[in-house]
Amino acid sequence: MRVIHFAAECYPVAKVGGLADVLGALPKYQRKAGITASVVMPFYNKAFVQNNELEIVYEGQIQQGHSLYDYHVLKERSDLLGFELILIKIPGLLDREEIYSYPDESEQFLAFQHAALNWLCDTNLRPDIIHCHDHHTGLIPFYIENAKQFAYLKGVPTVATVHNGQYQGWQNWDSAALMPAFDTWRWGLLDWNGLINPLAALIKCCWAYTTVSEGYLHELYTRANGLESLFKAEQDKSYGIVNGIDTDVWNTLTDPMLNHNFSQAAVKKGKEISKKNIGEQYGMDETLPLFVFIGRFALEKGADLLVSVFESIFENLKGQANFFVLGSGDKNIEASLLKIQKQFSQHLALFIGYNEELAHQVYASADFLLMPSRIEPCGLNQLYAMRYGTVPVVHATGGLKDTVIDMNEGGYGILFNDITVSGIAEAIQRALQHWNATDQKQWTTLRKKLMKLDFSWEKSTRKYTELYNKLIN
Ligand code: GLC
Known about the structure:
The chain folds into 2 domains: 2-244 and 458-472, Rossmann fold (3-Layer(aba) Sandwich); 267-455, Rossmann fold (3-Layer(aba) Sandwich), CATH 3.40.50.2000. 37% of the residues lie in helices and 20% in strands. The protein has helices spanning 18-32, 47-51, 105-122, 140-146, 198-205, 214-220, 228-233, 267-282, 306-317, 331-343, 356-365, 381-387, 398-403, 421-437, 440-452, 457-472, and strands spanning 2-6, 36-42, 54-64, 67-76, 84-89, 129-133, 158-162, 191-192, 195-196, 208-211, 238-240, 290-297, 322-329, 348-352, 368-371, 391-395, 414-416.
């Protein structure tokens, strides 16, 4: 079976969030399961493309409105990722450094989808399944059914995966002039409330849609940034398939990003040493429990609540715990975190930016991972944390609720319902009570239990395969 994934991100080629991690791992595990999986994504001018050898496998042209663009299809040569990686380069449009947030972003993703399909048709490449991830690739199922130019692909089953329903790629109808010619009477498939909505088009036109956890699927019926009724109407073709993690990458024993590698058996010592390292670097007492937050500073992730949580915690706790915050995003949140970090520098370390290596070290050092996400379709950080023996303290939503079981229910983490400053502060207090009431031996047992949990991709890969087979037959 030949599957082509279309996405905007893929680790380690280009990453903003968890979307990249999924695209960097799922195809690899699919290949292990006997599927030929490729990832097709835009070309970004990042370290990966500079440091690796790419070969041009096709060159063509697309007409987008009044602009004629040349495009190059590049293939990574050494099979470095464990699956075929294809990059679509369009000089002037898809050859920049960042993944998102250019003013002409919609033109960029329109051109990407157009060129990618053009290449498949021109080279007679007709996969068994086309798998689109999030709104950046949302027009593909519409195009292959309704644009003459791509008739060669008509009838290929399409799967859509929703990693984040908040972003939908809205464009006003002027954009239609930039699209490849399509049957105009089918315009309604692109529309949602008077705008072109690529996520809505994806859900309407795909053969099946999946979300990255079962819990999130049900949430979308009542909270989907305006698309609730659509997700509900199309629920007969919906599936919740939870993400896995790449256990080759996330392995405390072999992880090259750690300063100190350790086995499950040596978790106590291993985490002690790791925490000491971090403590020394950031001037924090390593004997105190360490809570960490890693992620985008966005409302979805609850990052805006952190500052007030810290204010209340540091007043009440009088130095009983340390915190580490690693991430970037909203500039106001960054500024207020910087301010409070200066005030409580003995107990709060802050790294503003994206740093994969430091993130690995912080997971290995932490005692608790804090995830106060308002919305979390799956969440991978709690899975990474657990794999590194860290107790998750998470808001009971979406994928967090599906993957963390509370200690009070015989589980291994802390779930809280109240996503307010006091709700989060209470959850931290609860975590500390456990920390203080548990002896070292029990704590080590808990960490080993966390490290043994199975969140590998094998299980989820099987579910995708079942779905693909069902569509093909
Ligand atoms: C998005 C979601 C996150 C999910 C990831 C991978 O980033 O916000 O919850 O884990 O996609 O599917």
